[in-house]
Amino acid sequence: MRKRLHINDVIAEPGTVEIDWGGLYSSTTSTFTMPSAVKWTPEGDSLYWGRTEYSVAFDSVSNAISGNGRATQFSDRLTFAATTVLIDSGHFDVAVAPQATAFLRSESGVRLGATAIARFDGGGNSAGLTAGWSGATTASNTNPAGVWDLGVGYGRQLGWRLKRFTPHADAVYERATGFERTIAVFGGVEYQMTERAAVDAVWQRYGLAGGEADRQFLVSFTINLGKRP
Fold this sequence. Notes:
By secondary structure, this protein is mainly β. It is built from no helices and 13 strands. 0% of the residues lie in helices and 66% in strands. β1 and β2 (32-41) form a beta hairpin.
């Protein structure tokens, strides 16, 4: 969902495959997951072949408390997205990302929606906005009929010998049908290990205002596999 949109590029570099993989632990529920995403932007000069990134996101491992102890499983859903850059300038970018989520168990139907992304970069600073909506074809107590969210984020690359570090902070306001409004906040730092590899450590707080409180810690890696020779 690119909540920390000021860390990575809006889309992966054309002609490359990018992999996101990490480990997330909830100190509130003792749940551990390994969120993952594979992203590909074909090389070209058209809107859908060169300016659109195609991706699939899932939890490669999910370990949570169940009625019989702890259960380790593959993700219960797959989320497909096509992120298209509509405006690409030196300092300002706008993109839109239609999304579809298919459930593998527990829920039925699919979720369909889209996220709009706007980002400004300049002088080592990066700020962005996201606005998203998704709807369920088959709603349930755990799969709301509609979800709206608005996110804002800011990051700043440090200078001199610390230029590989980028501290960042984000906030997301969410409203789901049948649930109270809620706010989540994120804060962390990204370290650019090489030109094509980075690690990001983030503290996440869901339910800061409204909703169920959840405190999480995430360490994620982003690796761009580069272009074929």
